């Protein structure tokens, strides 16, 4: 790829290593490479430096198995005409996804991961098109929320309030379009604690945080990809929602598990809920949980024994799966405090659960939206939103809060004179 001034962008050190691995498939990456990347985040220039993806020389995107481009040499400028024609002929929504579906022997559903601040609108448009084309297929969406935590934003913080409203609107849309949505709190809001004692995690580094929660997402959904497994997307969503018809779930987990980890002693303080607000990320109690699916990776005999003993003490019947340890690619950060280098694989426990704690999330969003209606109508109008639509959003958030909380309805919002 070349810049407009014909200055070719040099490959990053990681992309150079990736090319070397392609040529020498039997060579093993050195431990120093991962450790140096983890300790020198300032060397990372582009988002592609985080990936383990081979890019086509005429595109910023990976184009797998496209015959017209195999073994083609060239750069961005030289291939501009062809690249443009490819984009025109293969629109993401109308062509590429349809071709992908046609290649599937059995399409059990789709899994989407999006960042709500930047790609909330695109995700909504994509799922809307997906629903029109495949109305009966299930979907699971992992939605990374913005760093603006509801009920902690000052009334004059326009930027923060816009993000809160954006997140709330995104969740409202996902309720209608996605079979199951798993919101994930911004890493900047993650609460430090014992769950991080084996990780030197920089919560403000995308390199670190994306490695952590992507490992949990990959692990939690692993039963859907096992060749001999009997699970599919529809069944997983049914397990999570069988008691409440819930369309929102939580992602939690432990990564890694130390050799001495004992579930009966340590699970309460080490299993972190990435979906709950920081004030509600606590507890080993199952009283507030409706349904839960656990996936364990690389458990030792002692881990398995203590996990089974802990399961026997739980009121809730937890659906559990076991699988080999998570293989760590050469791009994975070396942020393990108890190990001198990045290990080739890692233990983990990841869980998906439907829980009453989701009511706190919707309650906080509903309260923040209500405050905007009462005191910041000018900002709502500058965002191009209708007041009546925002009122409907607030009311729906209160209904969602009530669905997860149970009991009497909380839709008795105090109305000011402007709303009468």
Automatic annotation (TrEMBL):
SUPFAM superfamilies: Tubulin nucleotide-binding domain-like
Region (Disordered), start-end ranges: 1-37
Domain (DML1/Misato tubulin): residue spans on this chain: 41-226
Domain of life from the UniProt record: Eukaryota
Pfam families (UniProt xref): Tubulin_3
Composition skew (Basic and acidic residues), residue ranges: 8-17
Name assigned to this protein: DML1/Misato tubulin domain-containing protein
